[in-house]
Write a structure and sequence with these properties.
Radius of gyration: 35 Å
Mean pLDDT: 79
Structural class: alpha+beta
Low-confidence stretches: 167-174
Number of domains: 3
Shape: elongated
Length: 358
């Protein structure tokens, strides 16, 4: 009996050594491969190799030992029945590592896309279209990968397979119930596809949503994050952009017209103000050279309304340009024509000045 136990222990020790040795061999193989890839990538400065090293290194260092360990019993001639439990565990780990690797491959593609289509340039409309579509597709890939990995893991268990076979008979009823329960989620998913490909909004678009000015920072499977100018974040459901009106200042172009209103006395010489404004705008670094004008757009009993129009490359430049021009024109009127500042006139008949009213 003792000899049988020793023989059994010796057999399990041999199996453990086979698994451990194979796993170590797989790890060393992957580690050496990535060391060589990192050295070659630095030498050649190739983005693809650098991205593969940064994104795929960890999942491959997990996946390679698992695959080597799975193959080891067959190479060593060990009976499959003896290692059935270990093989099942390794298969589950392989699905998890393979799913992580697939998701990280999407990150490699993302690095290449972002390098090819950069949004930190002045005219980035086409780039933002591509980035928006790819970002949504990437999130769908991640969600589908997680579902598929979980399904493959569950199918390794006989009880789950039996349950699945039983559920197939009532799939129609279950489908109706699930469809009714998840109709909002499905609507959001479809809205996401619609937003990604019709693109009423894109990453980095300038929008006015719920009265707030901001930029589209993130588009997920269920919501959109708007980065407001004061660094708050407005989280909006995807369906909002299909069901409600909103302003998109960069829908077809980032160029924008800005305006400033001044309210002055009637005695202000508009010609002098126009000449001074043209001198200012033509030297201003944030004017794009398209539009400059001054018009008297309204008047009432007390003041006249002067509209100063200007153009800029984008919304941020237009805001800074408007503030700067407004400040300098007000200073010009204060210094050169102080009598033309808005005022209220009151005229008293000469005979009534100083009279006492009972």
């Amino acid at each position: 009996m003792l000899s049988g136990l020793l023989e059994n222990a010796s057999e399990w020790l041999r199996i453990g050594i086979v698994f451990a040795g194979a796993a170590v061999a797989g790890f060393i193989f992957a580690w050496v491969a990535f060391k060589a890839l990192k050295w070659y990538g630095r030498k050649r400065d190739i983005l693809l190799l650098r991205s593969i090293n940064n994104n795929l290194r960890t999942p491959v260092l997990w996946l390679a030992p698992i695959i080597f360990a799975q193959a080891a019993p067959f190479a060593a001639g060990i009976e499959a029945a003896k290692v059935a439990t270990a093989a099942l565990l390794l298969e589950i780990l392989m699905y998890i590592a393979a799913g992580a690797l697939f998701v990280q491959i999407a990150d490699v593609v993302s690095d290449l896309v972002r390098d090819r289509y950069r949004i930190d340039v002045q005219d980035n409309l086409e780039e933002r279209k591509i980035i928006t579509q790819f970002q949504y597709i990437k999130r769908v890939i991640i969600a589908v990968t997680i579902v598929v990995v979980i399904a493959f893991i569950l199918l390794q268990f006989d009880r789950v397979r039996e349950l699945g076979a039983g559920l197939l008979t009532s799939a129609g009823v279950a489908g109706i119930i699930i469809g009714l329960a998840a109709q909002k989620s499905i609507a959001n998913l479809l809205a996401g596809f619609q937003l990604a490909f019709t693109q009423p909004i894109r990453i980095d678009d300038v929008v006015i949503v719920e009265g707030e000015w901001g930029r589209i920072e993130e588009i997920t499977l269920t919501y959109v994050v708007v980065r407001i100018w004061d660094e708050r974040r407005l989280v909006v459901p995807l369906n909002y952009f299909n069901e409600k009106p909103f302003q998109n200042w960069t829908r077809t172009s980032a160029q924008l017209l800005g305006y400033v209103y001044l309210y002055t006395d009637y005695r202000l010489p508009i010609g002098e103000l126009r000449n001074y404004y043209f001198q200012l705008i033509e030297k201003h670094e944030k004017w794009d050279g398209r539009v400059k004008s001054i018009q008297v757009t309204n008047s009432d009993r007390h003041t006249m309304e002067v509209r100063i129009l200007m153009s800029a490359h984008n919304a941020s430049d237009a805001w800074d340009l408007r503030c700067d021009i407004r400040e300098q024109l007000i200073a010009f009127i204060q210094e050169d024509y102080p009598e033309c500042l808005p005022r209220t006139r009151v005229e008293m008949p000469e005979g009534e000045v100083g009279e006492r009213v009972d």
